[in-house]
């Protein structure tokens, strides 16, 4: 029995001290082919330093063997020695039998560095040189999947499946296609693939994507079942909570939806979006106190989240808390970090506080954005009429009557104004 075989046997039994001895003997006594096989086994088992030492020893003896350089580069990338890895790869010339493989290893290196365009160039060159190599097609598909360029990944995965390769390097290509279609917004195609995967065989990510896809297709019961299963098996998967809540709301299960969001907040209390969505559900349940509490928690986490600012100021308007609206929104106006809805809310607040110059300023600022919303137009018409600002009033009045021609009061007001002009 060779020392290499003995070394592997010791590893299998967990006898690390004996392994070290027989590994050293293998380096001294075993032939080169046996050592090469040992290095491949050690690499597979994760003993990278030991495999690297063998490859370096063999490269000294066979400097023309570029496969050894590529193997060493692969190990160095695993150990995060990227510059050394590139040194080896750059020594492999285009006329070498190992050149295509060196391109693939280089592509993997650049992908880990998020230099996706360089990685793509390497893989496309490899594909040009070896167009029938499925490993290159798979690597390209995985690169595009990582880049979220799903429309480019899908045909590559489909070609591999058509060639009789439903899985590659431990990756289920049916899952990949389903998830890629879902992320590309092609939900009907996505669910056709995702349904083929048994729920028990799904990773949490695939389970989430499948539940999300059911939600987009308005198959709410299926979405609820799958996302609930994901929550039970992996409650730390915080992305599921807003979508499970959304599915429950669609089924008019508001109390259950709020409970789910509260459970999500128990897992991730630093997610302002969860607080905001929980506030939405509390508002639908007409619990204004809870709505405000949740919005304030979300605002404390990110006071630049204008969606939360708008919701909170809308609540203050509804509750006629006009002084609080002005105080709350003042910093956003000063910083010019505003949404048109905030102009509207400030206009309403200043009008009720009888600070008419400020109310006028904010109504005028809001006007261009809400000319198609009757809820804005009608009060603004009355405000500008009271202020004697006829031009603004007529502009809004004409827009309103065009939207609601059967509002007799507004139609008569417009008619009277037109007669005055005549």
From TrEMBL:
UniProt organism field:
Secundilactobacillus odoratitofui DSM 19909 = JCM 15043
Intervals holding TPR repeats: 204-237, 238-271
Entry annotated with the keyword Hydrolase: no
Keyword presence, Zinc:
no
| Alphabetically ordered keywords of this record | Repeat, TPR repeat
Protein name listed in UniProt: TPR repeat-containing protein
Database matches in InterPro entries: CellSynth/LPSAsmb/PSIAsmb, TPR-like_helical_dom_sf, TPR_rpt
């Amino acid at each position: 029995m060779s020392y290499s075989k003995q070394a592997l046997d010791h590893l299998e039994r967990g006898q690390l001290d004996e392994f070290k001895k027989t590994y050293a003997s293998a380096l001294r006594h075993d032939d080169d082919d046996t050592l090469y096989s040992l290095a491949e086994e050690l690499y597979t088992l994760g003993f990278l330093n030991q495999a690297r030492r063998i490859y370096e020893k063999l490269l000294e003896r066979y400097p023309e063997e570029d496969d050894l350089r590529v193997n060493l580069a692969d190990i160095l990338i695993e150990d995060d020695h990227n510059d050394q890895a590139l040194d080896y790869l750059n020594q492999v010339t285009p006329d070498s039998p190992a050149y295509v493989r060196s391109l693939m290893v280089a592509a993997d290196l650049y992908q880990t560095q998020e230099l996706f365009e360089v990685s793509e160039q390497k893989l496309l060159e490899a594909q040009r040189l070896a167009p029938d190599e499925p490993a290159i097609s798979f690597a390209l598909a995985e690169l595009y999947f990582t880049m979220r360029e799903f429309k480019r990944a899908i045909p590559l995965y489909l070609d591999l499946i058509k060639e009789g390769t439903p899985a590659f390097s431990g990756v289920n290509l049916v899952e990949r296609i389903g998830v890629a279609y879902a992320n590309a917004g092609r939900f009907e195609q996505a669910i056709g693939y995702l349904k083929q995967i048994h729920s028990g065989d799904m990773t949490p990510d695939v389970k989430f994507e499948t539940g999300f896809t059911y939600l987009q297709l308005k198959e709410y019961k299926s979405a609820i079942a799958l996302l609930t299963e994901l929550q039970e098996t992996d409650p730390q998967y915080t992305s599921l909570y807003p979508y499970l809540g959304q599915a429950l709301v669609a089924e008019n299960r508001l109390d259950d939806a709020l409970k789910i969001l509260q459970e999500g907040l128990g897992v991730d209390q630093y997610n302002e979006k969860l607080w905001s969505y929980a506030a939405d559900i509390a508002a639908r349940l007409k619990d204004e106190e809870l709505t405000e509490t949740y919005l304030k928690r979300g605002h404390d986490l990110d006071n630049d989240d204008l969606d939360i600012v708008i919701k909170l100021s809308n609540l203050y308007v509804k509750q006629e808390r006009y002084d609080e609206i002005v105080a709350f929104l003042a910093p956003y106006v000063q910083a010019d970090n505003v949404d048109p809805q905030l102009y509207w809310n400030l206009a309403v607040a200043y009008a009720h506080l009888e600070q008419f110059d400020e109310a006028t300023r904010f109504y005028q600022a809001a006007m261009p954005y809400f000319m198609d919303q009757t809820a804005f137009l009608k009060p603004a018409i009355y405000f500008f009429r009271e202020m004697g600002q006829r031009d603004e009033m007529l502009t809004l009045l004409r827009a309103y009557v065009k939207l609601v021609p059967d509002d007799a009061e507004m139609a008569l007001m417009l008619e009277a104004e037109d007669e005055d002009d005549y």
